[in-house]
User: Fold this.
Amino acid sequence: MQLVCQNRRARRNYQIERTMEAGLVLQGTEVKSLRLGRANLGDGYVSIENGEAYLYHVHISPFAQGNRYNHEPLRRRKLLLKKEEIRRLKSKVDERGFTLIPLKLYFNDHGKAKVEIALAIGKRKYDKRDVIDREASRKELRKAKEKRRK
Assistant:
């Protein structure tokens, strides 16, 4: 697996319930830009419209050697998922307040561009603080155990 880019803020801002892999419908110059690692998932999200899933606000830079047929950087991109998966995701997003966000953009072993999407719930400010406090206490315990060993 060749990782192109990753959404690191997603795990901090969202509670991830489920992840899945989806294919992407891309133009030629987009694939070339992705191979160079020129993408940003920061503001991206997935929307389901008319029984199809689309990826929005994912920036793939124009290919430097591209000509007038170069792609638009923020265009909407279709995701390749099975109908049943799309129907299941749509029902979760509609009824419970879940959102779909991209976590990783990568090339699999066969050279196909894939995106890992997550069904997630947004964290509140106090949830984020709780996580930070828990991590700090774990770190202190680890340091205390190391001191005792020495």
